[in-house]
Structure formats: C-alpha cells, structure tokens
Amino acid sequence: MKKDAFLKSKVIVPVVLFVIATSFMLLSNNVIPEDSRLKLNDREYFETRGFNVLVFENRYNGMFFDEKTAGILLIHHGVRTATGGAVRLKPTPEQWDQIPFVVERNVNKENNSIDVLLRYEDFDFDTRVYVQPRGTGILFTVTIDKPLPAKLEGRAGFNLEFLPSAYFEKTYLMDGRTGTFPLYPSSSMEVMPANTQLGQFADHSTFDDRGRSEYVEPKPISEGQTLILAPEDPEHHIQIQSLDGNLMLLDGRNVAQNGWFVVRTLIPANKTGKVVEWLLTPNTIPNWTRTPVIGHSQVGYYPDQEKIAVIELDKNDTPLSTASLLKLNERGEFTEKYNDQVKEWGPFMRYHYIKFDFSSVSDRGIYVIQYGDQRSDPFQIGTHIYDNAWQPTLDIWFPVQMDHMFVNEAYRVWHGAAHLDDALQAPVNHQHFDGYRMGDSTETRYTPGERIPGLNIGGWFDAGDYDIRTGSHCNTVIHFVDSWEHFGIKRDETLVDHKQRYVDIHHPDGKPDILQQIEHGTLALIAQHRAFGRAIPGIIVPKLHQYHHLGDGSTMTDNLNYNPNLKIYESDGYSSGTPDDRWAFTNKSSRNNYTSATALAAASRALRGYNDALADECLTTAKKVWTDEHKQPQQESRPGFMFGGTGEMEAALQLYICTKNKQYATRFEELLWPAMEKGFNFNMKNAVRAVPYMDKAYKEKLLPFVKKYKASNDEILKQNPYGVIITTGGWAGNESVISWAVTNYLLHKAFPELMGPEYTYRGINYILGCHPSSDISFVSGIGTRSKKIAYGNNRADYTFIAGGVAPGVLVLKPDFPENKEDWPFLWGENEYVIDICAEYILLANAVLDLGKE
Ligand SMILES: [Ca+2]
Ligand SMILES: [Ca+2]
Ligand SMILES: [Ca+2]
C-alpha cells in the first residue's frame, strides 16, 4: 500500500481537456460506435459509458427476501434505474413473494455473455436467463427445458423493475401509443381467489383480506411489443422490444408502496426452449462523464480543524489540477479566498478520487468549494457550527419514536398511543419474518397466546417497523447514559407525561429530555424483568400484513386486548376478537440478559435523583441478572448471531462503576484482555470506557493496544479516501462509522498525546457529507443539505423525520456505492434506527467538546 501514500503526495500535472460531445450526437443510428457497445469487464458486468448491466452479482438473501437490490440491475448514467430482472411468479412481486435461487452463474468471457440458472424449489421449476450484448443494447433470453408447471401458467414471467422516482414526470410509448408514468398508483385491480395465491414467505400473507378469501393484483397499464421509456430524456431513455410475446407495463405500488414499475412478459404454456426474448436498448449520451461529487461536511468546520474535501470523479474524467475555496459576502458575492493544487488519491470502487486540502483557511464565514464548473453547497467555518447539530435528534426524532405514547408537535399529531394491547406470549416453534424465533418451549410461566401483564409501557419504535427490539433498546439507553455522564445534557424542549401517555414536542416541562428518554427506554426493559425475571429478545406484531404498516403506530393494532370469545373483527368496545396483539418472543439468551443488565446498571446512575425508585429497581435487577447468569450455564438462543462474547464483560464494567465492588472489575479484566488479544479493534470501545474507573496499571496495559489501534486507523486512510471504515454488507455502515468515531474521541481524551482529534472529525465529516455517492448529510435536518427522503415510519410520504440518521452508503456488488435521495424505501440505505441515532447525539457532543479544547 505504499503506492497510495506516494500518490497522495503527488500533485497532478495540469491537464485541460474539452470534449466536443455534439459531433457524436449526429451519428446515424446505423453506425454503432465501438464505444457504445457493451462489453463484459474484469468485474464481471457489462459496461459502456453511461450504461452498465449487472447480472446476479447481487442475489436475493434469505433474510429480508426481495430488498430490490438483487437480480439483473441496470445502472444508467450513474443511477441504478432498474433491478430485479429474473423470472418471477407475480406481476409485481412484493418483498415476501417467492424469489428464485441461483443454481449457477456462468460468466462467459469468450462470447461476452453471462447466463444464470434460476430455480424455484417449491415448483421444481428451472429457468435459464442468458444475457448478451447485441448492437448498442443487450439481449435477454429465457429458456426452459421442461414445460411450465401447470400451477405457474399465467403466473411465471420474465420481469424487470424500473425505479418509479427515476421515471416520474416522464412519458412512455407502447407500440406508438403514448402515456405518462403515474406519479401516484391508480391502476385497475383484479380480485383473485385466495386459492390461486402462490405462497409467500413461510405461508405468511402481506394482504389483509378481512375474511374474504381473496387478494388483489394490478392489471397492466399498457401492453404491446415495443416499450420506450422516457424518450424525451436522454439519461433515462430505454427501448425494450419483445421478440416473442407481449410486454406488460405494471405499477407495483398498487399493492406495496415500495413497489416499482414492472415490465413483464409471461412464459407461454406448453413450450420449451426459448420462451422469452427481449432486446433492451438504452440511450447513452456520447462520452458521458458523471458529474464530480465534492464530498465535504454540510455542517462545516472548526477554524483550526483539518479540512479536506474528497472529490469523487468518473473514472473517465480527467482531474483538474486545482480547486478553490470561495467566501460569500453580505452582498451575495463569492470571492476566492484560497486556491490550491488538488492531490491524487486514486481508484476506489468504481470511481477515482482526488483531495482538496483547505485546512489553512480559518477565517469565520460562509464558504463554497469550487471545482471546475461544480460548486458545493454553502457551509460554515466557525466555532459555533456544532452548537445545533444534535438537538433535532433528541427534540424531534426520539419523541416521534416513543411507543405507548401519544406524540404531539404544535398543530401536528405524529401518532396516537400505540400498542396498548401489548402483549401475548408468542407461540412455540415459530420463525418470525423479522428474525425473531421461538424454540419448542416458551421458557416462561406463560402459555402461548396468554396475556403478559405490564408490557405496554416505555420503549421506542425500534426502526421503520415499530417493534421493541431489546438489544437495540439496551444500546440506546447506554448511549444516552454516556451522553448524560460525559456531557450532562440538560436540554429541555419536550414534555413527557407517562400518566397521560402524552408527549409534546417544543414544550419544556422542567425535566431534562435525555433523562426522560433514558426513563422511557428503561421502562420497556424493566417491564420484561418484572414479567419474566429476565430480559427477552423483543415484542413484535404477529402478522405480516401488520408488519409492513405505514402510518400512525397506534393503528398497527386495534389497541384492544384480544378476546377469544368474540368473533374476528368484532369488538365489545373493551376487547376485540381480532388477533392483532403483539407477541413477546421469550427464549432465554445470556447475551440478551447481560446486555439488559448493562443498560439497567448504567441507567440506574443517570436516573438517580430523577426517579429514585426506578434507579433502585434497575440496579437491583442488574445485580440479580449477574447472580442468575452465574448460577447457570450460558444460554444462547441464536448461536452465531452475535459475535464478541456474551455481554458479561460490559455488564461487569457497568456494575463495577455503580458499586465499586472489586469482583466486577476483576471479572471485567479477566474477560477483556484475552478478547483484546483476539480482536482489539472490536473490543477497544469497552476497554477505553473503563479507563476513568480503573487504576494506572490498567491504562499502561492498554497503551500497546492503543498504539496498534492507531496504526490500524491510519491504515484505513490507505483503503479508501475517506479514512473511515466503509462496510460492504447488506446494510450500510454509518453505525460502525459513528461507533468508531466515538471510540476515537474517548481514546483521544484518555491518551491525548497519542490520539489526535482528527479520527473523530473524520467520522463525523463522513456522516455529514464527506462520503461516496453524494455529498448529502445523512442526518435529516442537519447541515445545509441533508436527507429529506428517508425510511422513517412516514416514508410513504417521501419525507423525513428531523434528526434521524440514515444507514448511509450501501455498496452494491461489485463496486456501486448507493444512497438514494429520491426513493425512501431501501431500508439498507435509508432506515433510521434508534441506537444509531442515540450514538449520533453522543458523537456530536463529543465533537462539540473537541471544539472547546
Ligand atoms: Ca425490526
Ligand atoms: Ca423535558
Ligand atoms: Ca388487539
């Protein structure tokens, strides 16, 4: 990796290159310039400038089924506009509809093609999809060896899904007939008898038929042989010709708000061999080059802070030699304050990166970065820039997530008091669609379906799906306690009245909001110990047709306790015959119990003097968990799900901080040091949190690990231009960036001579705009430009909840970083989650503290 360090120091030789694009546009259709033909590249996708076709590089995973990130994907002028290309069994498949399993994928370099064998095990049904460039387009051919199973006649077809937001306010032509893409779904629907429904995930149903034994499907908006999408828009213009069979255009949003526009051809009955063939021809803009992205903090920079913009370039772009910093004056004029050579960083994923360092500028003011024709959003340099960087998360986002409460904000009601009918004992031997699982015993004194008292208090909607997930509640409480203990946040802008189950945003009530949030989370955790004598994995709705709920959380269930003596959909006004009450998943897990004890012990300190009775109960409970867990062998209901130990280490530390009882400190060190030997990166957050409470010898023992940790942090700067950990899993990585940056801050406080503040700044800059794909701030409402369309529980309205922190940049295989700003429904990119948001409050306060140094 020495090469990167060399490149970083190398100044780019000035190059001026103007591409005259217009001459290419005059080329006749009959002459295909070699450049516009798709070729299979080394990364195993088809590529030409402005258009890529990825074939099952990204696959459906079993966990969340169809995440709209798998199958055949089109990246058209830098935007992923189509996904899900495959043989599917529904006109507009939803998340939990059946997905094909990839039996084999062949990349055939010799003839520039890829083919995949897809299988539906339930129907013993195989299809082969063959993909090969043809002219300036690409040919999709579907073949089958055996005739279609009778059950799939009229059901199986080749589908390709187009991103609605990419085609809003655009037109289409079907065999010359004109249309515009609907902004809002309003297709004609077909009512189908329930017995024709092909099973969804584990025989759950996304459709609530209210006892009618039916379901609905959209009818085609248009049918024909040749579909032209967005002929008026050179960036989105695509032609699809069906060489065999009809094309249908459908709108998946009629059955699921996260549906896409689907183009589909049915596989004919009683036929084998070639059954579907499409020629898809995109328009590509000659010599198209993606607009540079000037990655920078949308909040801005402290005067004396390192200030480096990371500029993301198309790999075909020729880097300019310089960039400049312009200052905005009161008359609205920009004047150049600084100009310097940009520095080469090099390739990362599919782009090329250069850096612009303007650290030497320290004058307070409003600035923009100018790179060629591109100008960044305005940002500030000043000592006050972080003063308001976390308040919306505590003032707005967390109150909106509060379960079992009515949440009001001025004239607006966010939601009524939700889930008052919590909760029933979950049945045994049950695999829930959100990952919860019950084994063959409840491991409680309750029988399946029995009401468990006291669970309808406290807690937050964990994420966009409203469940009470214990692990994330514990983390959230711990982050809040950290913020309270480190920074003493006394801000009071929210009224919380548990007796009335009423929350009023922008309404101070004389009590610190962070303590009220700690109390609210703790109430949900302690309710589990009261009911079960230990922590449980969580509480969630039983039915899939409830789970995809969009809107007011208080309408997710009927809020009436289930009464088996009433008929379904019947109510006596006090109880109801509709089995919609949430289920408590109750299997034992030592890790879960220890994590709960960790949070309760921490909470007991914060709640002391605010709610002493609850503080006492929390500490007593945490100690009881410790005793109970040491009486029995470790229990793990989900082996392999959690890594990094049982949670005992964290519980030991928190109990030691509370009690100063040496037995906990001894056990903490017994567990910590071997764990540090195995993985100091993962365990550093625990190690550094203990420093203020342990002796000098502890700190000395930690020092060599801190040195190694710092070296590994420096190594990250060679792995990507942002110098933070960029994960490549199915969920984007802002949580690990925030957690890493907080650890860096704590290390800086403990070892200031070794760890500078720059590692913490790097983390927050990434979250606030200096990251791949775009320069948007991932915290809604924070920074000049931030996430305005996210996966909150109001996502159906294409909007945001202020202070929410999105997961961030998802890396689609092999090299495509993505965070969609016009489409809220990709949870791996845009779903706000409680523990990330709480840790963001901690990070922003840490950065505020750095500013005081
Ligand atoms: Ca969940
Ligand atoms: Ca308050
Ligand atoms: Ca109910």
Query: Which ligands does the model contain, each kind named once?
Result: calcium ion
Say what oligomer this is. single chain
Strand content: 15-25%
Average pLDDT level: 94
Shape: globular
Round the Cα radius of gyration to an integer and report it.
28 Å
The largest sheet, given as strand count, sense and whether it forms a barrel, is:
9 strands, antiparallel
Spatial order of strands in the largest sheet: 1-2-3-4-5-10-19-18-15
Catalogue the unreliable spans. Answer: 1-30, 637-643
Helix content: 25-40%
Number of H/I helices: 16
Q: How far apart are the termini?
A: 34 Å
Could you name the key traits of this structure?
853 residues, alpha+beta, 9-stranded antiparallel sheet, 26% helix, binds calcium ion
Structure description:
By secondary structure, the protein is α+β, with helices and mostly antiparallel strands. It is 26% helix and 25% strand. The chain has 16 helices and 44 strands. The strands form 10 sheets. The chain has a 9-stranded antiparallel β-sheet. It has a 9-stranded antiparallel β-sheet with strand order 6-7-8-9-20-17-16-11-12, with no helix packed on it. Strands 22, 24, 25, 28, 29 and 30 form a 6-stranded mixed β-sheet that branches. A hairpin with a 2-residue loop joins strand 4 and strand 5 (79-88). Helix 5 (470-487) runs antiparallel to helix 6 (513-532), helix 6 crosses helix 8 (590-607) and helix 13 (734-750) packs antiparallel against helix 14 (758-767). It is globular. The protein binds calcium ion (3 copies). The site of one calcium ion has 8 residues, from loops. One calcium ion binds next to helix 6.
